[in-house]
Amino acid sequence: MKTIWKQFSVLPGFSLTLGFTIFYLSLFVLLPLSAVFLKTATMDWGALWVTVTDPRVLASYKLSFGASCVAALMNMVFGLLIAWVLVRYSFPGKRIIDGLVDLPFALPTAVAGIALTAIYSENGIIGHYLQLFGIKVAFTPFGIIVALTFIGLPFVVRTVQPILEDLDAHVEEAAASLGATGWQTFRRVILPELYPALLTGFALAFARALGEYGSVVFISGNMPMYTEITPLLIMSKLEQFDYAGATALAAVMLLASFVLLLFINLIQWRTGRRYAAKG
Known about the structure:
The protein is an all-alpha fold. The chain has helices spanning 14-40, 45-52, 55-88, 94-100, 103-106, 109-120, 127-132, 141-166, 169-177, 182-210, 214-220, 230-239, 243-278. It starts with 13 loop residues before the first helix and ends with a helix.
């Protein structure tokens, strides 16, 4: 008699868990997303094209995607630096700083927006001194980048931090003993290991910034054609009961985000294959 061995699993069987996974994703992800496209489909092509290509809407696209990209790139640099300090050094107050990294996760976005506006306005603690050098932050695109950087920083830090903790410091010592400079060690030894995690952190920070509303709506000033982001236009159309127009803008943002995230995932996949082949 043939004996069939089954792998032990704490959770229920594959069929049950897979069914629950599909049900959960369909209920909370696929159905809401499909509703966006179904509502948009109620518009004819002419009205849809006029809605999504309005000059005011195009200006909001440019600002939303541009500011999100800049903020995510800044978080890649400074998020890596903060993760490096938290992993490689021991100093008084380290646990406090490590906890502060997660503050944007817990802080309501509206509260963050009000606080940033108060700090970076012309009469704010920081904005007052920046004004002396002719730098204006609040109610400018620069202020939007500041807000998006604030809410996206934890994604990069928490993505890179575990990789740095698992990275063997002896590899760096070996590179140094072979005559490699600090920059060469970072570029050829450390960065290849961190590159996939950095890309993941960038993608998460970018996606988070792209849909941000609460922290931006206060510091931006919401000036059409200048500091008006696309989520604000969507909210404006909802308040005017233009649900089809709101979902049309949301569908454009959603499709653009999918394309960008797909592109980043392809880069990660190719990078992973290349490093696996070298290994």
